[in-house]
Amino acid sequence: MPARSATRSALAFLFVSGLVVHSSAQKSAGGNADWAAYNGGLNGDHYARLTQITRANVQKLRQAWVYDTGEPGGIQTNPLVVNGVLYGYTPTQKVIALDAATGKLKWKFDSGIKGNQPVRGLSLWSDGKERRLFAGVMNFLYCLDPGTGQPITSFGENGRIDLRKGLREPWQDQSIALTSPGVLYKDLIIVGGRDPETHPAPPGDIRAFDVHTGAVRWVFHTIPRPGETGYKTWPRDAYKTAGAANNWAGMTLDEKKGILFVPTGSAVMDFYGGDRLGDDLYANCLLALDAATGKLLWHFQGVHHDIWDRDFPTPPALFTMKKDGKAIEAVAQPTKQGWLYVLDRATGKPLFPVSEKAYPASTVPGEVAAKTQPLPEWPKPYARQQLTEDMLTTRTPEAHAWAVQQFREMQSAGQFVPFLAGGKETVVLPGFDGGAEWGGPAVDPVHNVIYINANEMAWLGGLQAAGKTNSAGEKIYADQCAVCHGVNRAGSPPDFPSLVDVTKRLPEEKIAATVQGGKGRMPGFPDVAGQRLKDLLDYLRTAPAQAEDKKEMQAGAHADDPEGAKVYARRCAMCHGENRQGNPPTFPPLADVGARLNAQQVTDLVHHGKGRMPAQPVQGSELAALLRYLNMSDAADAGSAVPEYTFAGYKKFLDSEGYPAIAPPWGTLSAIDLNTGNYLWKINLGEFPELVAKGMKDTGSENYGGPIVTETGVLFIGATNHDRKFRAFDSSNGKLLWETVLPYLGNATPATYTIDGKQYVVIGASGARDSKTPQGSAYVAFSLP
């Protein structure tokens, strides 16, 4: 007998202007139930109306088939399953089609491009007569025939669009990749993209293309142009050089109302915003756009002037809240910080209280941190947000003592505390990988419960003056590589490998290919080519084997600054005199202001005014020039000019043996009632097998990839690093119902579907996130006997 969901799912087969819109567990030929869109449906709820696998029989699940890709690397793909065919990726971004009942390969599309970026899904369009499969391969969007895997050459340029085109010139130098699939609406495929986190980076435009021709139908500028709302939250003409504010996480669609929900990330540079002073709309926003036109309906900014890499990391989930006897169409947006924002879908207004909380100013010259940040008062955060000494590891006495010694040298004051320059490292909890991550939440729309898996790892951050570089290659390294690998090239293994002596470990051809094409979480830098690439390789080859610590390096200033003098004459001279002598006491002298005030204090006065002095809209390069000029009243002040600062490098807070330096949990799974904001249950998710062998169980671990939940109350999740387990929980109470060990780590979101009445659950597995585990990649499917 076919699963009951096949009948119910017929209701989800909607037609809008003659085009099919997919929902989870959609009915298809033969009475099967499909997983027809990324994460199961365009509404982002990861929910399946399937009933064959239940809480009573899930422990009987057995492996149904395995497809081994034959490739090392990572799979983060949530596959599509339509009409009995599974569509997915290999680690090198070859697109594959499998018989979803047997795992047998039907076809494989090799673009000839060796993709090595994560890619998390595909999009399948149909009007009931014709079908088109859209697949991102690095910076290209391909349109394939789902039956054969061959490009449909009438789309774009011979079946593909180069997404670098149309962002900024020269387009060949732009770096963009599709880590998440596009959203389909009527005859549009709408995409964002992953950008670098350093300059140069393209703007994070949201673009809609015609599914038939590939022509651009609309563009929304996340870095506004003159005349567009939000333009004044950036320095003047920022759109010409500012980058990112992009959607790498994926999007969600209200199909009925035609509203597209787009979460965006931070602007570049991620950790220093001296060249982008202001709130930086529409970075770190949840955007509601008219899916047909790209018109902005509303926005909600979760972080003002982000200098902590607090991107919105996942597509939001749509649901209908039941509040005070009313049904309110709502959207739930998880965050890296551990907050859950619940907003009215029509207006963007919070449905639980959100208040602006004051935070300290930055002490870094040239930086102006936002005075307040919007914090939800409810629900309570699903991850710890401030590390204190009593939270440090007790795994062993030695590990605890080591962690205490290290912690006492750090700054740990909770959320949104600006990083220091050249001083103490700042604790970031949850770390730069969340909190919530790209896998996203699952929502049970019947009971209005959201399920969020989260990391609880502490990371460290800090800034250091960029300083003078001794060669062109060193400057390229400082601009493009140091943010992850550190100014001293030491990295933070295993996530960010050391580049000290890298040319002795890897052939330069392989290094060059990685620089230009990216690998794993590293974006490509196609602008580093020709002489620039040669210069970088020369620097990596000839740099000292012992990486130099440049934390205390200070950037010198020019002896003169004509541009700063012009800004001063235009903005300040009328009151303070053309020679900065002032007219005390009404207008103080500025000749020695660099000896009395630091650049942060001067910046605050310029932007906010004081007494009879009005605020001045001096931003970006103008502000930097003015500060240099004011700090040059004599030679002694030359060193106090505002330098550009760089991130000191990603670094996890680990103990001396490489385990988290904070006490468990290191990863969790939470269930929250969306009507009330109350927690229903919370459990630790994941463990380290070697610690389990020593009696340290259920610690939780880092986890990547999200859950899915079924109508029968079964929640499936892989996600966990280290233990390779795929688990099923009772969604009502968090009780473990079933688990199995995968051949590789299950760092992906699973999918579920039915074929000929049999329900399957499938997950992508790969070893990329833990080199100590088996290496390889596969799709593994399970079913009842």
Keywords:
785 residues; alpha+beta; Cytochrome Bc1 Complex, Chain D, domain 2; 5-stranded mixed beta sheet; 4-stranded antiparallel beta sheet; 12% helix; globular
Describe the structure.
Residues 468-544, 559-634 form the Cytochrome c domain. The chain has 785 residues and is an alpha+beta fold. Among the domains are: 468-549, Orthogonal Bundle (Cytochrome Bc1 Complex, Chain D, domain 2); 562-642, Cytochrome Bc1 Complex, Chain D, domain 2 (Orthogonal Bundle), CATH 1.10.760.10. It is 12% helix and 26% strand. The strands form 13 sheets. It has a five-stranded mixed β-sheet with strand order 5-37-38-39-40, with no helix packed on it. Helix 8 crosses helix 12. The radius of gyration is 26 Å and the shape is globular.
How are the SSEs placed, and which strands pair?
Elements: H1 4-8, E1 14-16, E2 19-21, E3 26-27, E4 33-34, E5 47-48, E6 62-68, E7 80-82, E8 85-89, E9 95-99, E10 105-109, E11 123-126, E12 131-137, E13 140-144, E14 160-162, E15 183-185, E16 188-191, E17 206-210, E18 216-220, E19 252-254, E20 259-263, E21 285-290, E22 296-301, E23 317-323, E24 326-334, E25 340-344, E26 354-358, E27 372-376, H2 397-407, E28 426-428, E29 442-444, E30 449-455, E31 459-461, E32 463-465, H3 472-480, H4 482-485, H5 502-505, H6 508-517, H7 531-542, H8 562-571, H9 573-576, H10 593-596, H11 599-608, H12 620-630, E33 645-647, E34 651-652, E35 667-673, E36 679-684, H13 689-692, E37 708-710, E38 714-717, E39 725-730, E40 736-741, E41 751-755, E42 758-766, E43 777-783
Parallel strand pairs: 5-37
Antiparallel strand pairs: 1-2, 3-4, 6-43, 7-8, 8-9, 9-10, 11-12, 12-13, 13-14, 15-16, 16-17, 17-18, 19-20, 20-21, 21-22, 23-24, 24-25, 26-27, 28-31, 29-30, 30-35, 31-34, 32-33, 35-36, 37-38, 38-39, 39-40, 41-42, 42-43
Helix pairs in contact: 3-7, 8-12
